[in-house]
Specification:
Elements lengths: L7 E5 L7 H9 L2 H6 L1 E6 L1 H10 L6 E3 L13 E5 L15 H19 L5 E4 L4 H6 L7 H9 L24 E3 L6 H6 L5 E3 L1
Parallel strand pairs: 1-2, 1-5, 2-4, 3-4, 5-7
Antiparallel strand pairs: 6-7
Helix pairs in contact: 4-6
């Protein structure tokens, strides 16, 4: 019996001035999470090096070109350094137009990887809507933005809430967003794109 391939997830960094990078680092500190999927963060490696220090994590941050990069380490933080960010204009905990623009670029880059078949699913970290709107987001939020990037005209929110007691992000809830109401199995079989937001 052939073993199943480990799913490949792309994660957006979220707003680099917000909690997104910290949430991702804390989630990937859990070895069970790293065993369930290979995770590639679309964002800025320097931001994740700072987030690792902030949460006192013991994970190496690697800049990689994708899942097939020889430097990809399933036990580390693998960052596709696809989002330029002027760190002189970046301030932790103070989202602004620059951080909003960076969050949107990460969403665009990660969505393209899923649409091209390089990843199986997309996980979005939190964005700061006001900063994203300052950066030119013409939608109410990133669900509608994702739908537009995927060419979907109608969106529906499908949510599953599950308390993650005992997890490093204890008390966090996972929300599954899809542009249609199909369950994961039907959605995957039909070639749809699934979105997960924490």
């Amino acid at each position: 019996m052939a073993s199943e391939r480990i799913p490949r997830l792309v994660l957006t960094m979220g707003d680099p001035s917000g909690i997104g990078p910290e949430v991702i680092v804390k989630a990937l500190c859990d070895p069970m999470v790293r065993k369930m999927a290979h995770c590639l963060i679309v964002g800025n490696a320097a931001i994740f090096r700072q987030a690792v220090k902030l949460v006192e994590a013991d994970l190496p941050v690697r800049s990689v070109s994708g899942f097939d990069d020889p430097a990809f380490d399933p036990d580390g933080l693998n960052v596709l350094d696809a989002v330029e960010l002027d760190l002189r204009r970046w301030t932790p905990q103070k989202p602004n137009e620059e951080s909003g623009r960076a969050a949107l670029r990460a969403i665009e880059g990660a969505t393209q990887l899923v649409l091209q078949g390089a990843a199986d699913a997309l996980v979005t970290a939190p964005i700061h809507k006001a900063a994203a709107h300052q950066a030119g987001l013409p939608f109410a939020g990133h669900t509608e933005f994702l739908a537009a990037l995927c060419g979907v005209t109608e969106t529906r929110l499908h949510a599953r809430l599950r308390r993650t007691a005992g997890h490093p992000c204890d008390g966090a809830y996972g929300v599954v967003r899809r542009p249609c109401g199909a369950d994961a199995r039907t959605h995957h079989q039909n070639g749809g794109v699934g979105f997960t937001c924490f």
